[in-house]
Amino acid sequence: MPHANATLTERGRLRLAQCVVDDGWPLRRAAERFQVSHNTARRWADRYRVLGPAGMVDRPSRPHHSPRRTHRRVERKVVHLRRTRRLGPASIAGRLGMHGSTVHRILRRHGMPKLASLDRGSGAPIRREPVRRYERDHPGELVHVDIKKLGRIPDGGGWRVHGRAHGARNSRATTRVRRNSHPVIGYDYIHSAVDDHSRLAYVEILPDEQGPTAAGFWQRAHAFFAAHGISVQRVMTDNGSCYRSRVWRRTLADLGVTHKRTRPYRPQTNGKVERFGGTLTAE
Fold first, then answer.
1. Which residues pair with 125 in a beta bridge?
2. Distance separating alpha carbons of residues 204 and 217, to the nearest angstrom
3. pLDDT band at residue 1 using 50, 70 and 90 as cut-offs
4. Among 49, 74, 93, 272, which is most exposed with the fewest C-beta within 10 angstroms?
């Protein structure tokens, strides 16, 4: 399709070329008649001599040869990682030793959809509710806090190495079981705090999700944010039992921080730290 400001359409190019080639007009006279440059008139006349009317259409601007383009074998690796591992450009670039911008161009060239439009498990497109985004005006105005429970991987590997029967045996173990000085099998609890405005995050891996543990985590997180010049005003959590405990309330009151809880069964309200936990799990 010709550019909106183009002087010649395909029909105009054909008329110009026929005047020069078929009717014998001089190039300068044809250029003045159709209000184009001498070189433009020569170009369309030369194409008409070689290709006829079929040469009057626009050609793609892509070069015939791209010697510096990423090798096709590497492009296949990029697409394979995206399809099988659901990885983003930065993660793929780190694994293949490439620039993230190069990986992004390869994914776009192959028509790969954004990860936000895919189900991370099946890879099928999903339909989401319209996203309502918000961000606080300055750091410390709101900090999101959450806990992510992850199963420990025993020495020698888990069920992906030894099979699901072995994994089921590990999952029945508790965090208090020790046998023959082996590492504890059970769960670790990732306590995370993410500032709403700056996205500065503080994370600790702790042995449980009890009230005193959560309170101690927040004391250290509060000191971490203060060391970065952020004065925390309000904290948002879900309705977990540790966040409804007296020790948690007392800790926040002593630090002059207001506590806000999400509506039950609405984790989207605390979505920034929920997404952060999902990223930690994926990585």
1. 118
2. 7
3. low
4. 49
Taking the model in full, what pTM does it have? 0.57
Lookup: tokens for 255: 């630090």
Rounded Cα distance, 144 and 268, in Å: 12
Taken in order 253, 198, 279, 157, the sign of the CA dihedral is negative
Tell me the three state secondary structure of residue 236: strand
Using DSSP, state whether 151 is helix, strand or coil. strand
Q: Can you tell me the distance from the alpha carbon of 4 to that of 41, in angstroms, rounded to the nearest whole number? A: 19
Strand, helix or coil for residue 144: strand
Pairing of strands 187-195, 143-151: antiparallel
- Residues 96/78, Cβ–Cβ less than 8 Å: yes
Q: What are phi and psi of 210, to 5 degrees?
A: -80, 165
Enter the tokens of residue 261. Answer: 């809880």
Helices 10-21 + 27-34 axis angle, to 10: 150
